[in-house]
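re: ur question from earlier - yeah i can do the single chain one, its not a big deal. heres the input i used so u can compare w yours
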Amino acid sequence: MESVPLLDLKPQYASLREEIDGAIRGVVESQAFVLGPVVERFEHAVLSYVGSAHAIGCASGTDALVLALAALGVGPGDEVLTSPFSFFASASCAYKVGARPRFADIDPGTFNLDPQSVARAIGPRTRVLLPVHLFGQCAAIGALMQIAAASRIPVVEDAAQALGATYDGGAEGRAPAHAGTIGRLGCYSFFPTKNLGAFGDGGMVVTSDDELADRIRLLRVHGGRQMYEHRFVGWNSRLDALQAAVLEVKLRHLDRWSRARAANAARYDRWFEDCGLISSGRLSVPQRDATSSHIFNQYTLRVQRRDELRAHLGALGIGHSIYYPVPLHLQECFSDLGYTAGDLPRAEQACREVISLPIYPELTREQQQRVVDAIEQFYAAR
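and the output i got, formated as tokens:
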């Protein structure tokens, strides 16, 4: 059986080769590689796309989170409340500014933060609520915004996996909005595996707050408005022009790629239902929240006998991954926070049961069929 990769970026590049190569050539010929007009043009394209007042490019999605917290003045003695079921940076960003992460449990269907658990977890030192829009679907941001407002804390959205996803707040009196634009600040990642992926690392912070935007622009260049004059102790976290040039080309195709991912997800859903794996309880497909669009940065199942299934898929050359095998509150580096197994049971259970399948836009029907056949074969044999 022919192998199926978890992600194959080569077809995407092949379809845009002429545009991307031309954009890169333009930067090389200009010899202007750090920030500059190409980066500014991409920033403007993103703010126009998501409907924000400011978009500030930086070196990575991790740096975007750190810069957002620093701009808000988060520091020693403060806590950042976030999800234990996410990429490491969702929590490590707190440590980078001298604060500490605090965790609430997740909704078992969407894998995003559970608002009721968040309300219980807010403490006297909670300075920021940092929800994660996991796998490409918005968290229950309306309810989370209300909880944060009642506690008078700002919301920083970790939208690293969700650029292009939207939240429909009609029931709450809000117009639909892009992930990352609802809280005080929103953070994106352009790591190559994202729906909008660079040719390396890259990130961005968006906000409609003029003062915060100005502060982030300073913090990303060592805290100064001009060379050798420093208002803050900042970072070297600049989006380079080569990455911005690539991303500007790709942004024009983002919605088309996200629709293709959603179509692939719908096909998986239908085929898993047709072969009886859903009705038998062997697996459950991703749950869609009616208030949010889903751009499927990952297509993540809950499955029985996950580790055995993983070995079976690996033997057949079927790409897959576990996002995430260890919850953040049980990571060794966070042991000083005092969490123990059983404290956040829904996140812990998800870590034991989830597996993500190939979902990239160029995935063919034939490749998807091989994935489904392999999973059906595994459960049929048992």
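DSSP finds twelve helices and twelve strands in the chain. not sure if urs matches, ping me
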